[in-house]
Amino acid sequence: MSNLVLFNKLKTYLYNFMTLFFKKYSNHFLLAGIGMISLLLLVVLLDIHQQTLIFPDATNYNESATNLYWYVRGHCNRPLLMAAIYGFPLVFGASEFDLYLTAQFINGVFWLMTILLMYEIFIQYVSTKVAFWLSILFICFFGISLYNFHFLAETPFLFFLVASFYFLQKYRQTKVFKWLVFALSIIVLSMLIKPASKFFALLMLLYFIRELIRNYTKKIMIVLYSSIGLCLIQAIGIKYQFGDFTISYIDSVTFYNYLFSKADCYRKGTDFDQMNNPRADYLFTFKVHDQKKIVKADIIEQLQNNKINLVKAYLHNFVWNTASANVVPITYSNINNSKRFEITKSFLIWLTKYQNRIMTILGIVLSLIMIRKYYKKDIFLLFVAVFILYIIGISGISSNQGDRFHIMTYPFTLILIANYLKSKPFFAPPQK
Questions:
Q1: Where does the sequence pass through the membrane (predicted)?
Q2: For the chain, which ranges sit under pLDDT 50?
């Protein structure tokens, strides 16, 4: 009899616990479900399961993963954390080609977690209902979700960025030091996904350097020391393998093959063709250590003798990357000669083009307003605004990228929109 009573109590407890759990996180489950449905719709409408396109960068990421797991060596352009995460299926016998498929599932998990983190950030500013719809809006940024189907760094990079800001917001609200350590550790690790964040990560570390020095003996600092240690391992490995103490050579290649090549074409009065670039062909005839020297010499020469054309090339890249659509649907083929495919493709190209334009303009305007208004009042919003301007600013280095850079700013622009909406009684969260 006592066992039956105990069983009934346990059953009641589990029932109540699960009821409260699903009630508390109902919006989270709903958002995850809507996110998965949206991905399935893209697969069906664009015949993604039949597409065979592999972007050149995806080949690089695949090579870096196999380098790490099969040969225990690094890659000159792609850092080790991206390789470690996406190459993990190799441990279980996956083939090199299998990584293109497993990457889609890993991307899907990162993307869904990003949605939930965004919702958690939104509810600090607006009601749960408004936060839910802002999260739906994030799901509808197809320029972001389309990258889930490719072995590229955009999806995990965005997750690391949003996760870092999630903890930075918690630190701003609570002043609990561990949240700052988590935020800084994740932004440092993001450099090992995509090196584009390295200067922003350094800025954050420098801003909080006094706080870090005051607490350098705390056990939680081991997390940050480990993140910095991984970056040092990456740089030391590159130094040993290729000859330079750097996280990646990708920045040198990007400068030389895009911005400075276009500026050189302006100087010579020739057309810039990204796919048929003699300068790129020339650069790749050298080892990466020598490439870095060639790039350095070219940068110095053009800064001295070709400034006007560099500015013209940068502005042209910036405008192009702001005005363009996402490159993924553009490259898809209508394999089944389907009218549904053509309609969907045309719609997504149109939608992502205007999402890019609207969100970029909003991001710039709101960021400038926030920096002027909150630069001493709210460290979280300050860094959100600075990050938006940082990413949009560096987009001018590369040409013909579509919205590939600017989509990284979309969720952060939504945060600034949420902050604006909190002052409106209809949107504001209930008072605690």
A1: 25-46, 80-97, 103-123, 130-147, 223-242, 379-398
A2: 1, 432
